[in-house]
Amino acid sequence: MLKRYFFEISYKGTAFFGWQRQPNQISVQEEIEQALSKIYSNQSISIVGCGRTDSGVHAQHYFFHVDLLEITEIAQFLFKLNRMLPSSIVVHAIEAVESDKHARFDAKKRTYRYFLHAKKNAFTTETSLYFPGDLNVSKMNEAASYLIGTQDFTSFSKLHTDVKTNICTVYTAKWVEDKEGIYFEISADRFLRNMVRAIVGTLMDIGTGKLTPEELKSISASKNRQKASLSVPAHGLFLWEIEY
Fold this sequence. Notes:
Helix content: 10-25%
Order of helices and strands: EHEEHEEEHEEEHHE
Radius of gyration: 19 Å
CATH superfamily of the largest domain: Pseudouridine synthase I, catalytic domain, C-terminal subdomain
């Protein structure tokens, strides 16, 4: 009899064309499905992730669900699966859940972080954006506060996607300074394709003085992607936390 399991994982997205399986490209989903298939004597296994991440984007905290024959020894299964997966994908925990629990639809809150570093660093080139210029963090945080609430984020969305609505509720949006540099953290009930990277690009233009904080309001109200700034590169972005 099949049981539903939630897998908690993290992955470095540098070598992958995103989470979702796609033709002729390597994805995180495909790597995991192939490993599970081998454990279950090459049966076809399909997993459901808590959301998409684009090519080169990382996940500190990610969940997927899958229906499998009962796992009798979770610790042993976890060890075996991790040995089969590449070093850039780590399974942290496996939990049996109710048969109707859904990794994507039951997620209540998602948090992303985008990392920047101002000093050249050989060890963060794939996980943080090198930006040696000056940024006014205070003005970026003023602008970020205008993102909080329920509103239409069409101006920060990739065009021609298959979603039914561009309305999102943002709970928090702020820049944080730490010893490594700065990062932008944003939490919401849902995110649109390319939304965080477009927001970060726009906030950075505010931080360099190309735009004012007040202009973020008009950019958002325009519902026009061309009004917002260019998206920042994918490699600084992490899906940081999922809450159910």
